[in-house]
Amino acid sequence: MGLPESERLTSILWEDIPPGAEYGPYEDVARHEDRDLWAEVYERRPDDEGATIPPGLIPVYILRALRLAFNGIPAGGVLARQTFTFSRPLRVGESFQTTIRVAEKYLRRGRPYVVLAFTIRLPDGTLVAESHKHLIWPGREPIGAHP
Questions:
Q1: Per DSSP, which regions of the chain are E strands?
Q2: Cβ count within 10 A of residue 105
């Protein structure tokens, strides 16, 4: 029996990620359950009028797409930075699509970084949110051994 999706780790190495590669779109739906769990964790009452998804759930949807694109998250990877631009709220029940692009790969102080650009859109193309995730992604060489 394999690991649950939330615990699966990928063995894809930094050297094997092609710059400019695109993944997706990955289909998802903004669910009541997501919103209600968020409200319970943060002890906030959900917005039933308009039934919008809190912006704090966008990183969860991005992580779901990352796991699909790379069959898990990088084993030994470190989130260095992440930025978000929100264009419109998601409403409960709305379908959306997440695409991922390898925006950049670089070495800094011997550490291999990957910058992934995420875009979330409604099926009609309406932009919901964008994010850039800077990850220290494990490679064949131990961290610090890169030239």
A1: 9-10, 22-29, 73-74, 78-86, 95-108, 111-121, 127-136
A2: 16
Q: Is 3 exposed, middle or buried (0-12, 13-18, 19+ CB in 10 A)?
A: exposed
For the segment 101-143, what is each residue's pLDDT rounded down to a tens digit? 999 999 998 889 999 999 999 999 999 999 999 999 888 765 5
Residues 6 or more apart from 59 whose CB is under 8 A from it?
Answer: 82, 84, 131
Beta bridge partners of 9: 73
**Which contacts (CB < 8 Å, 24+ apart) does range 115-122 have?**
116/66, 118/62, 118/65, 118/66, 120/58, 120/61, 120/62, 120/90, 120/96, 121/25, 121/96, 121/97, 122/94, 122/95, 122/96, 122/97
pTM above 0.90, yes or no: no
